[in-house]
Specification:
Elements: E1 2-6, E2 9-11, E3 16-18, E4 20-24, E5 27-32, E6 42-45, E7 50-53, E8 55-60, E9 65-66, E10 69-70, H1 75-84, E11 87-96, H2 102-113, E12 120-127, H3 132-143, E13 148-152, H4 163-176, E14 179-183, H5 187-199, H6 206-211, H7 214-231, E15 234-237, H8 243-254, E16 259-263, H9 265-269, H10 297-306, E17 312-313, H11 352-362, H12 368-382, E18 400-410, E19 429-439, E20 442-446, E21 449-450
Parallel strand pairs: 1-6, 2-7, 8-11, 11-12, 12-13, 13-14, 14-15, 15-16, 16-17
Antiparallel strand pairs: 1-4, 2-3, 4-5, 7-18, 9-10, 18-19, 19-20, 20-21
Helix pairs in contact: 3-4, 4-7, 7-8
The chain binds zinc ion.
Residues 59, 61, 316, 318 line the site of zinc ion (ZN).
Length: 469
C-alpha cells in the first residue's frame, strides 16, 4: 500500500520545495516533482498546505509522580493529545528514585508506556541516586537506547544531586558518549528564599516566581557548564528560561564547548504576570518559573532561537488539574496557602507546534526552515533519532504533518485533548493549524478526529547525540 501526499509545499530544516511525497511501508520512498505518473493506493491532497516533519517533543512527563500526586496525562492521553497538535515523537523521563536501581526505574517506565502510546517514544533517565551501581547502569542503559541522563541542581531532598554526584555522572557520560541533561537552578539557595517568603506570610503563587530568582538559574547554568568542561561531558540544559542562563550558554558555545539548551513555549509567551491574580496563578507554576517580561527574558530567548544559541523548543509537559482529577484527586489545590506545595508543571504537549508556528513563523520572528529545525530536526539529532525521525527524506519514517498556514483556531480547555481541566493559553487565537498527522505513513489525525489506537507508538532505542556545537 502506497500513500501520496500531493500538491503540498514540503519544508525541511534546509529545503522548501513543491513536491509530492510518496510513502510505502511506513517510510518516505520518494520526493517527486509535480510531473510524475505515480498512481498510489491512497492520496492526500495538500494544496495550499505545508508538509512538514512531525514534531519531536524531547521533554514530557506523562504520569510523573510529583509533589504527592501524578501528572494528569497518562501515556495514552498525553501521546494522543501530542498527535492532535502535530507531535509524532516524544522523549519522556524515566525516574530512578533514591535507593532504587536506575535499570528498574527504566523498566517501570517502559511498562507504563508499552501498548499505550499513540506515537513513537523514547526515554531519558532521571538519575536520582548517583552511586557505583548507577554509574554501571548508565552504561547498560546506553545499550538499551537510553543515551541521556537528567540531573537536578534543584529540588533538594527529591531529585537533587550535589556537585560531586554531578561530576561522577558527567565523567561516566563523557566515557560513554551519552548526554547530561541538566535542570539548572540553585535549589539550595532558592529554598532559603522560599522559607523566608513563607515566614513573611507570602503564600500566593506569585511568590513562586519571585523567590526562584533568574540569577540563580544563571549561576547553576554556569556551574553545570564548568563541571561539563572539566569532565568533558556533553551538556544539554533543559527548559532554559532566564537571560542570565542564556548568557552562560552563549559564552560556553563561543568557547567551543559542547553545550546546548532548549527553551519552552511558556517562557517565550507567558510571564511573571500570569502568576498573579491570587490562586489562579497556580495554573502557571512550573520550575524554572515564568520570568518578568520587563526584564527582557522573552526577547532574549527569541533572539537565542534565531542565532542558534538555543537549539530546541520542547514543552516540559507536566499537567496538574486545578480541580480534582478523577483518578489522582487534589492537584494544584495542594498548594492553597503555601505556594511551595503547588505541584510544579504545566500542560503544553498539544500546543507546542502551533504556538511556535503562530508566534514564530506567522508573527515573523523565525523562518519556516528554522521552525522545522527547532521543533523536529535538531531534537532528533540531539537525541540520536536522526534521520529516522526529524526530517522528510527518502528512508525516513513517514511521520509527517500537514499544516494550513492560513487557518485559524482558538485554544481552549473545552476542545483540547490533554487530560487537564485548564489551558495555559485559554482563548488564544492561533494562525496556522495542524490538520492531518501521519505516523509511520498512517493517518492518525484528520478532520479533528483521531484514527489510531493505543499501542501504535513503539519504543525508540536511541543512538548517541549527533550534535557537536
Ligand atoms: Zn521536566
Amino acid at each position: 500500500m502506497t500513500t501520496l501526499i500531493r500538491n503540498g509545499t514540503v519544508v525541511t530544516a534546509v529545503e522548501k520545495m513543491e513536491a509530492d511525497v510518496l510513502i510505502d511501508g511506513g517510510q518516505v520512498v520518494a520526493l517527486l516533482g509535480r510531473q510524475h505518473t505515480v498512481t498510489p493506493t491512497e492520496e492526500i491532497d495538500a494544496t495550499g498546505k505545508l508538509v512538514l516533519p512531525g514534531g519531536i517533543d524531547v521533554h514530557t512527563h506523562m504520569e510523573l509522580p510529583f509533589g504527592g500526586t501524578f501528572a494528569a496525562d497518562t501515556f495514552e492521553t498525553g501521546t494522543r493529545a501530542a498527535a492532535f497538535g502535530g507531535t509524532t515523537t516524544i522523549i519522556d523521563f524515566a525516574v530512578q528514585t533514591k535507593g532504587q536501581s536506575a535499570m528498574k526505574g527504566w523498566e517501570a517506565w517502559m511498562e507504563k508506556a508499552r501498548g499505550n502510546c499513540a506515537i513513537d517514544y523514547g526515554f531519558h533517565m532521571i538519575t536520582g541516586d548517583i552511586n557505583d551501581q548507577t554509574l554501571k547502569e548508565m552504561e547498560l542503559l546506553v545499550h538499551e537506547g537510553v543515551t541521556s541522563f537528567k540531573m537536578f541542581m534543584a529540588y533538594p531532598g527529591v531529585f537533587y544531586s550535589d556537585d560531586g554526584e554531578i561530576v561522577r555522572a558527567m565523567q561516566k557520560a563523557a566515557e560513554d558518549g551519552s548526554t547530561i541533561c541538566m535542570h539548572a537552578e540553585n535549589g539550595i539557595a532558592i529554598d532559603v528564599y522560599v522559607q523566608q517568603a513563607l515566614d513573611r506570610g507570602e503564600t500566593d503563587p506569585i511568590y513562586h516566581g519571585i523567590v526562584r530568582k533568574s540569577i540563580l538559574e544563571g549561576e547553576a547554568a554556569h556551574r553545570a557548564i564548568k563541571l561539563a568542561q572539566v569532565t568533558g561531558a556533553q551538556l544539554y540544559i533543559v527548559h532554559l528560561s532566564a537571560r542570565e542562563a542564556l548568557d552562560e550558554v552563549i559564552r560556553a558555545r563561543d568557547d567551543g564547548l559542547n553545550v546546548h539548551a532548549e527553551t519552552c513555549p511558556q517562557y517565550l509567551f507567558l510571564s511573571l504576570d500570569d502568576l498573579g491574580n491570587g490562586f489562579e496563578g497556580a495554573k502557571y507554576v512550573a520550575s524554572p518559573p515564568l520570568r518578568d517580561a520587563a526584564a527582557g527574558h522573552q526577547d532574549r530567548l527569541w533572539q537565542g532561537l534565531r542565532t542558534n544559541d538555543l537549539q530546541v523548543v520542547s514543552t516540559d509537559h507536566c499537567p496538574f488539574c486545578m480541580g480534582d482529577h478523577p483518578r489522582f484527586g487534589t492537584q494544584k489545590q495542594l498548594g492553597q496557602g503555601d505556594f511551595s506545595k503547588i505541584p510544579n508543571g504545566m500542560p503544553g504537549v498539544e500546543n507546542r507546534m502551533e504556538l511556535i508556528f503562530n508566534g514564530g513563523v506567522s508573527e515573523g520572528r523565525i523562518g519556516l526552515n528554522r521552525f522545522v529545525e527547532i521543533t523536529a530536526t535538531t531534537p532528533a539529532k540531539m537525541f540520536g533519532l536522526y534521520p529516522k525521525k526529524g526530517t522528510i527524506a527518502v528512508g525516513s519514517d513517514a511521520d509527517i504533518i500537514i499544516l494550513d498556514p492560513e487557518a485559524t483556531h482558538v485554544i481552549s480547555a473545552d476542545t483540547h485533548h490533554m487530560d487537564v481541566d485548564y489551558s495555559a493559553y485559554e482563548g488564544w487565537e492561533m494562525k496556522g493549524r495542524v490538520e492531518t498527522v501521519l505516523s509511520k505513513g498512517r493517518v492518525i489525525v484528520s478532520d479533528n478526529t483521531y484514527h489510531g489506537q493505543p499501542g501504535d507508538g513503539v519504543y525508540l532505542p536511541r543512538g548517541l547525540s549527533q550534535c557537536l556545537i
